[in-house]
Structure formats: C-alpha cells, structure tokens
Write a structure and sequence with these properties.
The protein is mainly β. It has 2 domains: 14-145, Immunoglobulin-like (Sandwich), CATH 2.60.40.1220; 164-253. Helices cover 3% and strands 41% of the residues. The chain has 1 helix and 15 strands. The chain has one helix at residues 57-63, and strands spanning 22-26, 31-34, 42-51, 64-70, 77-92, 102-114, 116-123, 137-145, 164-166, 172-175, 183-187, 198-199, 204-206, 223-230, 246-253. A 4-stranded antiparallel beta sheet has the order 1-3-6-5, with helices on one face. The chain is elongated and about 85 Å long.
C-alpha cells in the first residue's frame, strides 16, 4: 500500500461499483492558446476527454455541447467525423491517494473555432455497457486568441500601443482586441471614474471626453485610457473565481509635437 493510501474491504455480495467519471481534459481546463490565424480567422483545436471506465463512444459524442464567446458570435463545432475512442493500454496512475485512474480516452477536433473563450460541456455520458452514467454536467474552458488579447494573456497584454487612437475631429476611440469578453468599461482620468459596464461586441468605441476637475498641477499631457473587460457567461458560478474576473489594459497617447 502506498504512503497515505487506504483500502476498504467489502463483502462481494455487497459490492457496488463506482459510476464512470471524467478524470481529465486536454489541453487543460482554462488553457490559453496562441491563435494560429488572424483575429477574424477560424481554426481547428483538438481535445481529449479522459474517463475512469470504458465509455460508449456515441454517447460521449451526444453528451458534448459547445458554448463560445466570440466577437462574431460564432460557436465552435464538434467534428463528429474526427472522433476516436480507445482504451488505455497503460493506465495513468493518479497522483492523489484514492484518485481515479484513466482507463479510456475520447479524442475529437473542434472546428470553426474563432478567437475567444470556449466551453466544452459534457452532460451525463454513459459507459460502454450503457448501465451507468457520469450523472454530472462537466464544463471545461479554453481560451484562444492573439498575443495582445488581455482575456487570453492578461500578464502580457496589460499595456497596449494600439488600443487608443485620435480621430480626425480630435476625439478619441479605442480599438477592441479582447475577443472573449462580454462586457467592458473604461476610464480616461486614471481610474478616478469609470463608465457603466457596457456590452462588448468588438470593433471600435468612441470615447467620452474626460471631465477633469483637478488642479493644473495634477493634470497630465496626452491622453490615457484604462479599459476593463469582463467574462460573465458559461454558468460561471460553476467555475473558480480566477476564471471569471475582469482583465485590465491601459494605453497612453502622448501629445503630438505638431499640435
């Protein structure tokens, strides 16, 4: 018996086997991918679902639904012709005491995957004998987008040189690059005030001029904008808080030397 392990002995006539369970999802829950196409392109993403028991391949296919948050409102699709189901010849040992081992793998491709945030939902899949199901609704996220998308790579996209632009009429606009967000708000006075949370649909947004009430010594040259984007979908009460919060990006446009 391994360290910290345990065993339970049950009379054979009293034994009831466990129901099948998902033991893993690849590429990983809330995994972030760099897109291989442009901001408006579509691509294919391979996924794997790992189970503790041999499953019915068709049942797993039927159990899968996809939800997507994208700028063009497109939804990724399961390519049913790409599905592969196989028993694991070498079982993966769980690193947790009492943890379930993976014995069966379901592989498939998702097609029509746009930049954004996607959820793979598996609802009550049946085992190979069709006499037991997972009895759960399991949800897994993955994010895919450009390197400057703060919803995908927040640590590397919190400053942008291509977010804030001055228009010909001397007003300003922001060019959104946060595919996957559902709401956004912005501040033009270093977060002293914010707009209301607004629906996010990509594209461009004309900014409301700042209402500066401070002293001249507190003022700054140039224009500054701080944008927060939020994901609020996919029944997110079922996800950890880290998958739900807002992402921040700021930009600074210095005054023109010719102004």
């Amino acid at each position: 018996m391994p360290g910290w392990g345990f065993k339970a002995f049950v009379p054979k006539d009293k034994w009831v086997g466990s129901t099948p369970s998902l033991t893993g999802f690849l590429p990983g829950h809330d995994y972030r991918m760099l897109s291989t196409v442009g901001p408006t392109g579509k691509e294919t993403v391979g996924i794997q679902l790992l189970f503790s028991q041999p499953m019915d391949c068709d049942s797993v296919t039927t159990a899968i639904t996809i939800e997507s948050n994208t700028d063009d409102n497109s939804i990724a699709q399961l390519d049913k012709g790409s599905t592969k189901c196989a028993s694991n010849t070498k079982q993966d040992k769980s690193k947790l005491s009492g943890g379930l081992e993976t014995t069966w793998t379901y592989s498939a491709n998702l097609i029509n995957v746009a930049n954004g945030i996607h959820a793979v939902i598996v609802s009550n899949a049946a085992n190979s004998g069709k006499n037991s199901t997972t009895g759960t609704v399991d949800r897994f996220l993955f994010r895919i987008g450009q390197a400057d998308n703060p919803m995908i790579f927040p640590r590397h996209s919190n400053y942008s040189e291509s977010l804030l632009y001055k228009k010909d009429d001397s007003t300003y606009k922001i060019v959104h690059k946060a595919a996957g967000a559902t709401k956004f708000r912005y501040s033009v006075d270093f977060q002293s005030s914010f707009t209301e949370w607004l629906p996010y649909s990509g594209g461009e947004t004309n900014l409301v001029n700042k209402n500066w009430t401070g002293t001249g010594s507190q003022a700054w040259k140039g224009e500054h904008v701080f944008v927060q984007c939020e994901l609020n979908s996919f029944h997110l009460s079922n996800f950890p808080r880290s998958s739900r919060g807002s992402q921040d990006t700021f930009a600074f446009l210095p005054p023109s030397p010719f102004a």
